[in-house]
């Protein structure tokens, strides 16, 4: 393949996802005013507990989502600099040190509002309202759990703090499989019990009764939105694909932490409708789809647009990915709206980084078959061991199944770990291998 | 360090005993192979940090805590990335090279994201034997955690019974608990002597004592320790030490390279105490010898994190930094060296809290990042010398 790797990007991104961007911006703008409105604010990490907070009538700030937002908008620098000043080493999870940097800034801002006179680019990083309580519910990653131990300490160990623990879906028992076996069922019951204890903790902390009907209502909308998203993803089996992984990345924030309501349903209905129209009218996401790829690992938030353009410029449609396709309310049939806690617990356990490598490999191969994938791009994420666990084993499994693989080096929220030249070289090599294989098969 | 009595003659007993322990610590897999040949019984490789060795012992097998190998990491690089800690990478490498085939099973209880990645790599590399994860919740505060740990221990007991053909009965567990408590107590005596300055023992030797306890048959280790403790006391009698006293902290799950200790001690430093995994952390907490043994092992898991809190656990009611300050002061140490394995996420998260506490108490300290390969000992030595020099001048090192 002799074409240059970086030519003007021809990607035909979905327009309906812009509405999600607006919803997300409004959500954060609202959070920033929580203190003035006298709202109770919870900082949380990990699983999408927001329906529980919604039903409890408190406002929620998903700290890692805020870290991702800072990185995606290239505003992460001040928070990371503050983290470094505080003492965090650069090899530490960049999500954690970004949001802990925000915590230090927020703490200082709360103590001394005059410090808002800091440089403009620091304003966003310091705008989170100080929390009234902290909840941690991190599956698959010990760092995720420990980082809120530090948040708790940054706020002088004075805040109410609750943790939900998740077992890794390991599979000691022979009947274990994805969403199968006694080990899975026991893990789900264990997490559901903790969710009940979390609700009791919230009731105790706020002095208010939990509104179960509101939880059912939120989960009613989330179940519909989740199903619409999965239906829309399925439509991308079409060749050429009507949407790409990068469009789905734009849909992560809405499904991850926006309130469960009609707006959420309308957003995903709009996305699905646009894709259906594209399929009906034969409008592809890329004008020249030549390769169909899968993306494994967590996002590289600093480089979303850059990566989207790079792959598009090489006629490579990234069709599916672990972070988008096997997470975020992606098994809506598990949710019983009338009694939602067990289904919620199951989804929290199904965090895409909470599986063993064998299951991850099987899920990847299944998606590769479903979407007719030629090759897998593994994002070797420097400071995220959780997303990196199992990737090399998954690659071996994919290769055994006849699928090309490549790795590139980057990070979830620290742009300095991204290595563009390595991505170029390896992408070119993989696409050439796909071509050779295709020619040999003729 | 050469052991001399008051008359200046080498205490051959101490040298011999420490030699035996050092050999097991330096070549643990060879020890396990010899033990299996000798006994005809099974050996279970267990992973750090909170594994109840008593459970495997009571099931009639040898529990041996898998150590980082000094071998260069090669084959394991195709299983996990280079940005994992030295222990995780070495573990995957040993599995990929077949070095761990001496074990009949691998068991783990701890939730550390890198460790679990390595364990999954082992499952891929060693397909023909059980790789069992009985994950203990790392959050110690919630009532659900205790119930879950008790359940995991019971499940392990059942799995070990299936592996060895011997169920760990209550009586056998009580015997095993008594043995391990005895061994821990003996090792603590050595640490007490070191802290009190009545036994001159190097950090390398101290680590070999604890590391060998992780590897060896507990009865065999006790037999050696029962000779070593009185011999050490006698050998070191009257030995003076004018060196600066220093506290070593960190390395939550594996052994620092002993050459790092040698380098530090070569700077006119004597190690007064530590909270290393291959040091006080491992031996600090006994298991209650009364009552239900599985309950006692459950309590032990939670008690350990109170005695010496670990950054890999999440517990709002204890504070590792406070405990460290207390230990430094109790040992009469004048400074601390924090040994942080590169890429160790829990330690990286907690380091700023530790730094804050040390700064607030005006305790000079140095952070040394360790790695599997490529430790720049001469450069590190310059930094340690600078710390020692500043301490001698009575000026804070930071």
TrEMBL record, chain A:
Superkingdom of source: Bacteria
Gene Ontology MF terms in the entry: iron-sulfur cluster binding; metal ion binding
InterPro entries associated with the record: FldB/FldC_alpha/beta (IPR010327)
Xref: Gene3D superfamilies: 3.40.50.11900
Record's keyword terms, sorted: Iron, Iron-sulfur, Metal-binding
Similarity comment: Belongs to the FldB/FldC dehydratase alpha/beta subunit family.
Name of this chain's protein: 2-hydroxyglutaryl-CoA dehydratase
């Amino acid at each position: 393949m002799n074409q240059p790797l970086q030519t003007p990007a021809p990607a035909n991104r979905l327009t309906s996802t812009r509405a999600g961007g607006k919803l997300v911006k409004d959500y954060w703008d609202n959070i920033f005013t929580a203190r003035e409105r006298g709202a109770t604010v919870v900082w949380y990490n990990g699983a999408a507990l927001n329906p529980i907070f919604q039903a409890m009538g408190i406002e929620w700030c998903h700290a890692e989502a805020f870290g991702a937002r800072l990185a995606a908008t290239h505003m992460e620098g001040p928070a990371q600099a503050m983290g470094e000043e505080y003492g965090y080493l650069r090899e530490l999870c960049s999500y954690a040190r970004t949001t802990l940097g925000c915590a230090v800034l927020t703490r200082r801002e709360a103590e001394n509002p005059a410090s808002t006179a800091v440089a403009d680019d620091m304003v966003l990083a310091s705008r989170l309202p100080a929390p009234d309580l902290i909840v941690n519910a991190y599956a698959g990653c010990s760092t995720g759990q420990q980082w809120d131990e530090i948040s708790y300490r940054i706020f002088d160990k004075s805040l109410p703090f609750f943790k939900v623990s998740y077992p890794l879906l390991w599979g000691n028992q022979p009947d274990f499989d994805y969403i199968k076996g006694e080990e899975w069922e026991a893990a789900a019951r264990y997490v559901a019990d903790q969710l009940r204890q979390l609700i009791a903790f919230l009731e105790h902390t706020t002095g208010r009764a939990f509104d179960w009907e509101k939880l059912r209502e939120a989960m009613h909308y989330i179940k519909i939105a989740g199903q619409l998203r999965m239906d829309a993803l399925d439509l991308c089996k079409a060749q050429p694909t009507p949407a790409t992984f990068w469009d789905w990345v734009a849909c992560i924030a809405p499904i991850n932490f926006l309130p469960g309501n009609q707006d959420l349903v309308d957003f995903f209905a709009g996305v699905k409708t646009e894709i259906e129209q594209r399929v009906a009218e034969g409008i592809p996401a890329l004008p020249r789809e030549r390769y169909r790829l899968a993306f494994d690992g967590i996002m590289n938030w600093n480089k979303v647009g850059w990566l989207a353009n790079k792959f598009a410029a090489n006629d490579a449609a990234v069709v599916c990915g672990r972070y988008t396709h096997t997470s975020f309310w992606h098994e809506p049939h598990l949710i019983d709206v009338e009694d939602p806690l067990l289904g919620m617990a199951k989804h929290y356990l199904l965090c895409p980084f909470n599986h063993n490598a064998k299951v991850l490999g099987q899920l990847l191969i299944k998606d590769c078959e479903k979407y007719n994938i030629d090759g897998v791009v593994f994002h070797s994420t420097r400071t995220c061991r959780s997303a990196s666990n199992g990737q090399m084993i998954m690659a071996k499994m994919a290769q055994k199944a006849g699928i090309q693989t490549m790795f590139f080096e980057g990070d979830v929220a620290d742009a300095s770990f991204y290595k563009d030249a390595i991505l170029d070289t390896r992408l070119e090599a993989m696409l050439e291998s796909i071509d050779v294989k295709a020619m040999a098969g003729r | 360090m050469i052991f001399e009595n008051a008359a200046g003659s080498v205490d051959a007993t101490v040298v011999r005993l420490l030699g035996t322990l050092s050999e097991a610590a330096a070549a643990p897999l060879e020890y396990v192979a010899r033990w299996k040949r000798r006994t005809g019984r099974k050996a279970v490789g267990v992973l750090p940090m909170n594994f109840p060795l008593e459970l495997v012992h009571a099931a009639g097998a040898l529990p041996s805590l898998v150590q980082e190998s000094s071998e260069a990491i090669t084959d394991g690089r195709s299983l996990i990335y280079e940005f994992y800690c030295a222990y995780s990478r070495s573990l995957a490498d040993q599995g990929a090279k077949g070095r761990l085939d001496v074990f009949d099973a691998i068991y783990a209880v701890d939730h550390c994201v890198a460790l679990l990645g390595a364990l999954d790599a082992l499952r891929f590399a060693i397909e023909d034997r059980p790789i069992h994860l009985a994950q203990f919740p790392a959050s110690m505060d919630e009532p659900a955690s205790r119930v879950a740990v008790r359940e995991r221990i019971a499940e392990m007991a059942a799995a070990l019974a299936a592996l060895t053909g011997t169920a760990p009965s209550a009586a056998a567990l009580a015997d095993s608990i008594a043995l391990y408590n005895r061994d821990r107590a003996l090792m603590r005596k050595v640490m007490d002597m070191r802290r009190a300055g009545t036994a001159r023992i190097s950090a390398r030797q101290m680590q070999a004592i604890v590391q060998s306890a992780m590897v060896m048959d507990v009865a065999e280790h006790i037999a050696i320790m029962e000779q070593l403790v009185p011999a050490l006391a006698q050998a070191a009698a009257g030995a003076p030490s004018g060196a600066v006293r220093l506290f070593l902290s960190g390395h939550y799950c594996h052994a620092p390279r002993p050459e790092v200790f040698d380098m530090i001690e070569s700077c006119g430093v004597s190690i007064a105490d530590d909270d290393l995994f291959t040091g006080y952390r491992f031996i600090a907490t006994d298991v209650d010898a009364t009552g239900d043994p599985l309950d006692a092992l459950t309590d032990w898991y939670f008690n350990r994190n109170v005695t010496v809190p670990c950054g890999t656990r999440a517990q709002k009611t204890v504070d590792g930094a406070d405990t460290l300050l207390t230990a430094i002061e109790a040992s009469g140490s004048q400074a601390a060296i924090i040994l942080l394995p590169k890429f160790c996420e829990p330690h990286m998260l907690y380091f700023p809290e530790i730094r804050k506490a040390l700064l607030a108490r005006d305790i000079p300290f140095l952070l040394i990042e360790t790695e599997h390969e490529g430790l720049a000992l001469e450069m590190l030595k310059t930094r340690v010398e600078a710390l020692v020099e500043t301490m001698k001048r009575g000026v804070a090192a930071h």
